[in-house]
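Narrative summary of target 7.
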Amino acid sequence: MPAESYIYEDGDEEAELEFLRESLEQMDNLTDKTTQLLKVFDIRLKNLGRIIAPIYKSTQKLTRLYDNIEATMGTLDDILLFFNVAKDEAATIHAGPDESELLPYLDSINRLKDASDALRQLDLESAAQSRKEIHELLRIGLGNLSQLFNQWLKQHSGGIDPAAYVNASEIPTFPTDTLKLLSMLATYLNLVNDEVSYDLRLTKTYATIRTRHLQKSLAQFSEMCSMYVRGNSLEPLPNQHGYDVASRNSLAEIRFCTIRNENWYEPSTSPFAQYTINIVKLFQAERDLVRHIMPTVISDETFFATTERPFEAYIAIGEKIMAFFISSPMYEVLHALDVYGYLLETESVMAALLAPNKNQSANMANMAGRLQAHLTKSFVALTVLLRSPFKEDTMPKQTGGVNELVSNTLTFLSYVIGYKDLLVSLFLSMGDGHWNQGVSQQSPHVSHHASDPSDGLSIFQHYLRDVIDALSFTIDQGGKHMKRPALQFVFLINNHSYLARALRDTMYAGDDESQSVGLGDLVGRSALLRIESQIERSRKGYIATWKALMSSFPASSLAPAEKLSMFNQGLDDMVRVQRSYDLFDAEVRAMLISDATDAIVPDYEMFLRQNPDKSPEFARAMKYTPRDLQRRIKGMLDD
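Modeled conformation, tokenized:
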């Protein structure tokens, strides 16, 4: 490259560097001037700040003062509005709530309540006057709401038939929408009532209406119980001026001993048992309804107030039923047993419903306890009666028929074993042999002890065996009161056969067609064998009374015709008397006819063979041929 080119390039670079140097110097000068200017501004701003600070503080105070004034003006506006609330809401309050749209009315009451709260803070006569007007409107408004609550509650509180429903959950109460409205209204009234200190008596309102509902629903059962007691109570004895407990018990005993009962109590037909079932169902349904409608804080109080009078009425009827049981014949024990079972089943449910009210919950338990005591005494009383059955007013009839006490007792026992499960626990609590206290253990109608004294079923079987043995003793005693020897044995055979058949026909053990346990199964075969042996002994005595008709046959001092005449007279008298006997059992009739035939026909035939007398006297005395005699005996028990 030429030298002049290098010289030319170096000159350009020097010129550029010089330009840069001058520019930097200018920038330095400008920076210094700017810095000085900023320092001046800073000093001036500081001075301005010191000048403005007092003014700024004054402005803040003015702003706060303005805000306070503005808030005060707003509050005054609100207070002035509160003075006008009574006037603004009066028309709405007096018109009453619209059932289809309740919220506007509630809003109106809320505005009145807010106004009352605000005006309470003002110590002004005008405020006091406005508050008085507001309180009057609140009283009217809350009264209207209370009336609406009352009206809705009454719509479905006219009484129902609880027996038509299986359980409490099926019992109808209120439509869902009505239920929600009642709940909302009850909650609101209870809340507002506390805030404004008005006595709306919400609990009393509910209880008054629903108590009537429960009373109407249960009235049929109360009336059925009263009718049952009136229709089945015993009438006073003839010429009896005083009619106390002792006389009623005496009359009950006489009836059980002398009148065959045809109307035995059937399980689950007790009006009081139905009363018990249905009052529990209604109370369960009512408790659920109270919890749906009423606020939690007053729901229990409301439920107890609602159920108090219906429950008292139930207990009062229970007392009447108890008094009826105590004065009734033995067969009403079946009714008492049924009621006792229902009381045990429902006692825990009722106790849970009425738990906080100890007095009410204890009443049902007390009734069950008293009924248990009565049942215990009744079972003991039966054994006592059977061991001393015949008094002046209870003598057996002179007909040879099945004695009413025997019939009633066996029918009673056949019904009693239907309550076997209930009685097993009852007898276990009473203890083995409690019914034999005061009775000699050597008595022929007292068995020694239960096979297992710690088992309720074993104790119950022990009791039944003792009753059967005592019943056999009763039959023996009845036979002793018969006035004719033949009648005595007819009575014994007929009644013991009746007893034996009652046991034999109820021995179901091993029967493939029946799973039940009968009286015969519970008593056992040994009792049946004893009774059958007694029948055989009585048959021997009966045969002896027939043979006594031929007591003159061996006499050597009498002519055959005289012997025959005496036999004929005795036979006719025997047949005539036996025709009047009440013997309805075909097997017993056949047995007696067979025994009578076997007792005299062979000996009669032998007498005729041994005395072939053809004299006119003998011919006249010959009233019966052996065949005639058989026909005469065979027809002696016909009507």
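Confidence is low (pLDDT under 50) at residues 237-246.
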